Amino acid sequence: MGQLAAGATPARRPPGATAQVTRSGFIALAGRPNVGKSTLANTIVGAKVAIVSDKPQTTRRAIRGVASGPDWQLVLVDLPGVQRPRDALTERMQQRVQSELADADGCLLVVNARQGVGPGDRFIAGLLRGAGAASGDTGGIPITIAVNKVDRTPPARVAAALADAEELGVGDEIFPVSARTGAGVGGLTDHLVARLPAGPAYFEPAQRSDQKTSVRLAELVREQVLARTREEVPHAVEVEVQEIRRRRDDLVAIEAVLLTETDSQKGILIGAQGRMIKSIGTAARRAIERELGARVHLELSVRVRRHWRADERVLDRLGIE
Length: 321
Ligand SMILES: Nc1nc2c(ncn2[C@@H]2O[C@H](COP(=O)(O)OP(=O)(O)OP(=O)(O)O)[C@@H](O)[C@H]2O)c(=O)[nH]1
Ligand SMILES: [Mg+2]
What we know:
35% of the residues lie in helices and 22% in strands. It is α/β, with parallel strands linked by helices.
């Protein structure tokens, strides 16, 4: 991370992988929206590869996050939460979940300890079983379960969630973890690494994610939108970086557009006297400066694009495939 060069192409298994490692593979993260999949991916990778928010349906693309050791490489595939599709956007998100799960070497099913195991989790376990992915099925991929957010959950409730997770009948092993504090994540990572199949390094060890720079930066802007908006607005906003120009060695100029669906959403994003867009811009600029290791001039604008979530061409352009 931290360079301006476009990231690697998002091919699942990039050609030209050279380094000899003993074990490697792709582990797809499955779970309901908001259970902490992206937070967990970031903690395991040790870098921010995916944005996080307290709103459901934050993640819209499959994001590969790479963790490497001396003789292994674990590629975590962070995915949108499993939900019922409502439009072309959520339809694509669910298609992506299905195709990534079908291609993965293993699955990490994440559930929320605090809320416990519910119908949504059982539905996902059924999907995994139906896809022939349940451990023990012929040709199925191993599934590990992470019971997340134990930092905020009373021990009795954690114990109940662990027992219910076992009842799902799909996991080879169940780990209580806190993606936020890192508790239990080391043991989980060791387990995932130990179960990787033999294989090469698919990514350079220094590469942490497969996302293009323009998308990574757009996501950092969207993260600030998600942190400041509620109800329908977070779901109706996408961010597109239109230009990244290195002005000097230590200064990068970036232009980004916030796409939204209605004039009233546009008004909310701009805010009284432009205060909202200013606050989004200041926080996003700081995040981008950390990411690029350079000073950044960030110019944001807001554009209404009615029904962009139903517009296949817009989704193609945004790289939501
Ligand atoms: N207390 C606590 N909160 C957590 C933990 N992990 C994630 N969260 C919070 O849960 C919320 C959702 O986290 P995300 O990582 O965005 O969840 P996600 O599963 O990727 O969500 P989608 O992308 O919408 O499917 C955020 O507010 C996180 O800070 C944890 O271990 N403990
Ligand atoms: Mg996510």
